[in-house]
Amino acid sequence: MSSTKDESTVNDEITPLQTQIPSESTVGISTVDVGDEMINQKWTSSLLMSVIIVVLSTSFVMGVNIGGPNLYNGFIVPWTRGHPFPCQKEGNTSQWIARKWWYCVYNDTTKNTNGYYYLPEILKKNLIGQRLKDSLHNVLFVIGGFIGAYSGQYWYRCLSRRNAIFASMPFQIVASIFMIITLYIYHGYEINDPDQETIDKAMKNKDVAIAFFYISRFLSGFSAGMCCVVSTSYLNEISPRALRGTVGSCHQLAIVIGILVGQIIGLPWILGRHNAWNWGMSWVGLLPLIGSILIWILPESPRWLIQEQKQNEASKTLRKLRQSNNIEAELVEIQEEESAASKENLEISKVLRLNEFRWPLITSLILNGIQQLSGINAVFFYSGDMFSVAGLREEKVFWGILATGVINLIATIVALKLIEILGRRPLIIWPLAGIIIVMIGLTILIVLNANNPEHKKEALAIVSIVFILIFIILFAIGLGPIPYVYSNEVFAVEARASGLSLAMFINWFCSFLVTLLFLPLQSAIEGYVFLVFSFFVALAFTLLFFKMPETKNKKLHEIQAFWK
């Protein structure tokens, strides 16, 4: 790595001496034309380390918090209802776990003398309201997310990019501590029919424990919402233009890996059990704890340093990231973009009013909204329920859930390559068309299977799962990574903080709507719920087909020319 002695400065303009480029380990080389000069744009060990530390400390954690609860819902729902004992479970899969690990016996009329052996049945007229209450922990996660995303603009402006990432970490650390506490102060482990004394002892700290649980989920969501703004901005600003899409997509890749790891940890053979689910939802706090230490060895965003008039530091940081002295063209490009922009960041109200930001904002909001209104979080939060409705039983549900995580990961890895080969627009438009077809087909399959006798359900259930997996593939190659990349590419520097915060706010708000309404809608209209998703996807397809530009390897003025 070049020494700081190898540069001289005149009136704050940097004129690095041309020295031999050091030999460093790199991965994957591409080139981009800046002005008349061709420069290397490549993965370097410094860039790779920065990406890994950031996404493991933030994006991966967000993925675990999305994927894990799906497998713990069978324990969380009765626990929050005030029924903490092992056999108090509903649903075929949860009762299978209770029978296998806690030797529960169902349909035994000699048990349940005090009403705490079996889970009380919910009357049909109360079912929709109860489903709303049961989804509250996921709803609070999402509410925390869109508040965290909206606040991102202020962290973005008040702190450096690196410091803003650090600020998101303590929220998850505290959330994990609260989650550990919950099951220690309120639980029931009595295998037999519990007597009144055992019930009273178990229920002593119920309200405090449930409050800790809900606060924990809110804080996890707040941290995740912040990370969608501050982490993606940092990744965008440290990456060379030729790798901007790939580096930006690492945020989504880490989320996807986190979802899969969360699903694996949540299996009953690991931590997905009545007495261990709190550890399954809290262990991930170790990563931001480690990340809060390692973050200080990472370089600051060179673009932010130039915004702050720290030209020399920006030059040093860019050399460190590129592991090359040949950074003049890229440095000039950043300086030109910054000098063309307003010196002050624009408030959200002004971005909403100015015509020049109208279509960047509308298309970003549509992309981020449809990412959630496509129904993807319904799959990852509630796929266990979905597979049960489709016809899967007992432990087969777990293999269905794991299949969603594995397929999602494979498709996202493929998307990292495709996003720089095919560009952003084709990976959004045509998968959206495919999702419409899949959702209609899935509706037909689930409705047909609902009328089948029990012994004939499994065949159509498997076909339904195939349709869900196709949906995940179509989502992962486009709607998964591209909204984060696109929203960072289409806004001028002075509008980026506000534009990105608005986009992430809409993303989390739509996630809130899906999380809040999916279970009640599923209870009310069953398989037809997927037609609701297909309607929103069709609207987004129509608008984006006409108004979404290609942004791959394009400068800002080239992107903006599409709307003129």
Automatic annotation (TrEMBL):
Biological source species: Rotaria magnacalcarata
Protein name in the entry: Major facilitator superfamily (MFS) profile domain-containing protein
Signal peptide interval: none
UniProt cross-references to PROSITE patterns, sorted A to Z: MFS (PS50850), SUGAR_TRANSPORT_2 (PS00217)
Sequence intervals crossing the membrane: 47-68, 135-152, 164-189, 209-232, 253-271, 277-298, 359-382, 397-416, 428-448, 460-486, 498-521, 527-546
Keyword Membrane: yes
InterPro entries membership: GLUT, MFS_dom, MFS_sugar_transport-like, MFS_trans_sf, Sugar/inositol_transpt, Sugar_transporter_CS
One GO MF term attached to the UniProt entry: hexose transmembrane transporter activity
Major facilitator superfamily (MFS) profile domain sequence ranges: 51-552
Subcellular location: Membrane
Keywords linked to the UniProt accession: Membrane, Transmembrane, Transmembrane helix, Transport
UniProt record similarity statement: Belongs to the major facilitator superfamily. Sugar transporter (TC 2.A.1.1) family.
Membrane topology: Multi-pass membrane protein
GO CC term (a single one): membrane
Statement: the UniProt record of this protein carries the keyword Membrane: yes
Lineage of origin: Eukaryota, Metazoa, Spiralia, Gnathifera, Rotifera
